[in-house]
């Protein structure tokens, strides 16, 4: 009897435990994906720790995905184990050979106690489908499996990038998933022998004499079973309470009034919003979630702050890349309509906060990915203006890769101001910036070539000339490594994954094996 129970239920219990552990981690991962204030505070608390320890916080999205994959894997194994078990239950219930399995399958009839069953298939004509859709465990299992499939499939990069609303709404099915998971084990389909029955008929003592259970003079009686208490709710209770508390805090904070002080329409269909909010405090490179109730009450979209902490407002740059952003830009372009109301939640921390912890910083932005570095460059301007002697960073290399010339106009005034400021202070070598244009034709290239001898660039009006094509990263990293042979260099990227792979490879390749010499640390923005 003991072997039969163990063989059929051990796999389910073991996998359920692993699934519960992964769900526990998933709630943590979901909270980290939400990136609430705790992320910022944790980074501050760990500020005195080793850089490698702090950097692990920046892999929260990767952690979120890995735990989700493990949940999918263990869910699949868990379901397959149940299917095998039900096949064994069906055979055992239909068996008439008087074996231990067949006797245990008819316990409720022999004992005339409907609650003392062990096999959930309690009659030869009962099907697996009937058990699945008439039991709490079966119905909730189907519901949470469907919810999990919808969440995973809608989170694929293609859907997330092209149909963000689909991803956003289906990902919030996690509420149904966790509720179903919490009550999944209430039906008691996983059974265990009662304490009283264990004392009277311990499996080690009575399993071999199962044919004598009906004898009145036998010291072994028919075993009695009961449903084991539900355990899954324990895995999600603490983290669920933490999540609810966080949502209440974020809801309260998002309802605080936001005043739009300035609206600027930039080239390449980019909108700049300058705002103020009571008690708002930020650091460089952070981002906020923005909601426009007139477009959607439920959709919140992340935008990197382009203002500096030293400014008396905070700003974002919004590029039209989807239905929501296009609707928002159109709403602000309406001249005879009231200005749309904006709700803001944040700010939230990112890897860019650590930029001033490095002696040398390499900033790489692709297209609108330049926004976190605009905040950093503005802050540098203010630090030099106010003669901040606590600035640890000695040199900054800034690379901006754009597909169209109009994009350079977003922050050309900022770069021009920094050029002028560095010249006046005699720190021309502090900021080395390089602009790369990837979308160009022969007319643009020919026009730039004819005007190459001019003091300023024909495309941007800056002293630094625009390069055509993409950077040769091996040459760039080699130059930086030779210029700073004993420095710690932080490489920060806000751009596509393909570029991230190239930069990560270069960081590893050009870091010296000697820890006293040049070391490159790669940091990527994750949203």
UniProtKB/TrEMBL annotation:
Job description of the protein: Catalytic subunit of the phagocyte NADPH oxidase complex that mediates the transfer of electrons from cytosolic NADPH to O2 to produce the superoxide anion (O2(-)). In the activated complex, electrons are first transferred from NADPH to flavin adenine dinucleotide (FAD) and subsequently transferred via two heme molecules to molecular oxygen, producing superoxide through an outer-sphere reaction.
Pfam families: FAD_binding_8, Ferric_reduct, NAD_binding_6
Superkingdom per UniProt: Eukaryota
InterPro entries given in the database record: Cyt_b245_heavy_chain, FAD-bd_8, FAD-bd_FR_type, Fe3_Rdtase_TM_dom, Fe_red_NAD-bd_6, FNR_nucleotide-bd, RBOH/FRE, Riboflavin_synthase-like_b-brl
Originating organism: Suricata suricatta
Gene3D superfamilies xref list: Nucleotide-binding domain of ferredoxin-NADP reductase (FNR) module, Translation factors
Ranges for domain FAD-binding FR-type: 253-354
Transmembrane regions listed in the UniProt entry: 6-31, 66-84, 133-154, 166-190
GO biological process terms on file: defense response; monoatomic ion transmembrane transport; superoxide anion generation
Subunit structure, interactors included: Component of the phagocyte NADPH oxidase core complex/cytochrome b558 complex, composed of CYBB (heavy chain (beta)) and CYBA (light chain (alpha)). Component of the phagocyte NADPH oxidase complex composed of an obligatory core heterodimer formed by the membrane proteins CYBA and CYBB and the cytosolic regulatory subunits NCF1/p47-phox, NCF2/p67-phox, NCF4/p40-phox and the small GTPase RAC1 or RAC2. Interacts with NCF1 (phosphorylated form). Interacts with NCF2; the interaction is enhanced in the presence of GBP7. Interacts with RAC2. Interacts with RAC1.
Keyword terms, alphabetized: Cell membrane, Electron transport, FAD, Flavoprotein, Glycoprotein, Heme, Ion channel, Ion transport, Iron, Membrane, Metal-binding, NADP, Oxidoreductase, Transmembrane, Transmembrane helix, Transport, Voltage-gated channel
Any single GO CC term annotated in Swiss-Prot or TrEMBL for this entry: monoatomic ion channel complex
GO MF term set: metal ion binding; superoxide-generating NAD(P)H oxidase activity
Protein's name according to its UniProt entry: NADPH oxidase 2
Membrane topology recorded in Swiss-Prot or TrEMBL: Multi-pass membrane protein
Principal localisation: membrane
